[in-house]
Write a structure and sequence with these properties.
Low-confidence stretches: none
Shape: globular
CATH architecture of the largest domain: 3-Layer(aba) Sandwich
CATH class of the largest domain: Alpha Beta
Structural class: alpha/beta
CATH topology of the largest domain: Rossmann fold
Helix content: 25-40%
Strand order of the largest sheet: 3-8-7-4-5-6
Mean pLDDT: 90
Number of helices: 11
Largest sheet: 6 strands, mixed
Order of helices and strands: EHEEHEHHEHEHEHEHEHEHEH
Radius of gyration: 19 Å
Number of strands: 11
Strand content: 15-25%
Distance between the termini: 19 Å
Length: about 270
């Protein structure tokens, strides 16, 4: 009998995609396991110059808080900790996470759970706005906050400046450092063929980054996406998918349960 279940295309970075595939398959789709496959649309690489990271660690005790924009930011920054895990146990700054994945990366690295702040599990979204609602009361005039984020392929810090703007308006001194580089993978021809097939075969794309949508468009610039379906973990990402031509896009928080519920709503 032909399997009529749609395939969920997990586009997260390679370091995370397979774990998400396995988690989705374990959780199941109703009473039937989910078909999911990893097709990373973003590649993570070390920064070409680690000196700014090392300098940030030398001055780590001067920061009242360190904010991590993603799990990748947390993992790559903490990997440069001198004398780890002792440095992590001695770290006394507040550690701000944008969502459960980033929070989990901090805890798995050995950070003190009592120092980690993240949006509530029932927050409407896992993003900078939700995090700010949790940590704004910690900020005073003169507070020094380090934001750890990614850089583009040329090494330039990229990403939204919304939280930095809120911090500066509250009187904080903000620094930013790139812990890793994001770039588009060098896709193979079989991968490009799989992308093209998934544009029309009923697959559901899972996007957790607007940048991933951009790399997909760059890989297949002439592709018609009007028959494609997607689940996005934030309204901004959903809009990027619609701008690419996806006709059916649903938005949900980035949890296994809500992603599965969104898949079911396509039926």
């Amino acid at each position: 009998m032909m399997d009529s279940r749609p395939t969920l295309i997990v586009t997260r970075v390679a370091e995370e995609a397979q774990a998400w595939v396995e988690a989705l398959q374990r959780a199941g789709h109703g009473t039937t396991p989910v078909r999911a496959e990893a097709l990373p649309l973003i590649e993570i690489a070390p920064v070409p110059d680690a000196q700014p990271l090392q300098e940030a660690w030398r001055r780590i005790t001067s920061f009242a808080a360190v904010m991590f924009v993603s799990a990748s930011a947390a993992r790559h920054f903490l990997a440069h900790a001198p004398h780890a895990p002792h440095a992590l146990r001695a770290l006394r700054a507040r550690l701000w996470a944008t969502g459960p994945g980033t929070q989990r990366a901090l805890l798995e690295a050995g950070c003190d759970p009592a120092l980690v702040d993240a949006p509530a599990a029932n927050a409407n979204q896992f993003d900078s706005e939700a995090l700010w609602g949790k940590v704004a009361q910690q900020v005073a005039t003169g507070s020094r906050v380090l934001i750890v984020r990614g850089a583009d392929a040329q090494g330039h810090i990229t990403g939204r400046d919304w939280l930095a703007t809120q911090l500066e308006a509250a009187g904080a001194d903000v620094e930013q450092v790139a812990a890793y580089v994001r770039r588009g993978p060098a896709f193979t021809e079989p991968q490009r063929a799989r992308m093209a097939a998934a544009a029309a075969d009923g697959s559901i794309w899972l996007f957790s980054s607007s940048e991933a949508v951009g790399y997909l468009r760059a890989a297949l610039p002439a592709q018609d996406w009007s028959a494609a379906r997607a689940v996005a973990t934030h309204p901004r990402i959903a809009q990027a998918a619609r701008d690419a031509g996806f006709a059916r896009v649903l938005t949900c928080r980035g949890t296994v349960e809500e992603i599965l519920a969104s898949i079911e709503s396509f039926a």
